[in-house]
Amino acid sequence: MSSGVLFAQFGFYGNDFGSVLNNLEQLGFFDYILPFLIIFSIIFGILSSLKIFKENKAINGIIALSVGLMALQFDFVPIFFREVFPRVGVGIVLLLLALIFMGMFMEAKSAATNWIFFGVGIVILISILIDTAEATSLGIFGSWWSDNITTLLTWTGIIAIVGMIIGSTGDKNKTPIESVLSRALGGD
After folding, report:
1. Closest-CA residue to 134 (of 147, 122, 123)
2. pLDDT value, residue 53
3. How far apart are CA 49 and CA 54, in angstroms?
4. How far apart are CA 47 and CA 49, in angstroms?
5. Among 2, 9, 86, 162, which is least packed by CB within 10 angstroms?
6. How is the chain split into domains, by residue range?
7. Average pLDDT of the chain to the nearest whole number
């Protein structure tokens, strides 16, 4: 095979990068190799940090290799990874947007900012897990959530309101919260 044909096939000489990704997809790179590498790395890292087998990296590697390959034996893991990681990407973007907007209006080092950011993160995580469970048909998650979402949101709202009321009864002599936006608009 000449180098011109090889480069043309893998996206050089005017082809787009999407064809390279399509070729990798056809080879099973995203369905099998990447999930295997993630599972292998996590298992190997956990075994290495726990030091169950002392410093014997060969045993840790064999166990991680076995678990990684056994996880890919059926299509459940590739389907799960295909469904969850695009949602995780969107969730990270949403967290970044929440961080930007909270940084404009709230003090960066306040406990309220941390709790709000934590709450937004939990809501996004639960949403990702519910959507992934529905898409992969994981047991009761799909039907239970769709049947009880209004009740769950109502109770979550009531608990949040009670928490805000209890949290607002703190020290009244605190300095006012200055956000980045309020300092910029005030000329400070």
Report:
1. 147
2. 83
3. 10
4. 6
5. 2
6. 1-73, 83-188
7. 78
Name the band, by pLDDT with cuts 50, 70 and 90, for residue 1.
very low
In the predicted structure, residue 28 carries a pLDDT above the cut 60 = yes
Chain centre distance of CA 163: 27
CB atoms inside a 10 Å sphere around CB 114 = 12
**With 0-12 CB in 10 A as exposed, 13-18 as middle and 19+ as buried, what is 143?**
exposed
Please tell me what DSSP assigns to residue 12: -
Distance CA 138, CA 144 (A): 11
CA angle 28, 34, 40 (to 5 degrees): 130
* DSSP assignment of 41-67: HHHHHHHHHHTTTTT-HHHHHHHHHHH
Does the global pTM surpass 0.85? Answer: no
The pair of three-digit structure tokens given for residue 164, joined into one six-digit string = 């805000």
Per-residue tokens: 112: 């309220």
Tally the C-alpha atoms within 13 A of residue 103's C-alpha that lie toward its C-beta.
6
Compute the CA torsion angle 121, 122, 127, 130 (nearest 10 deg).
140
| Token output for 166 | 């209890």
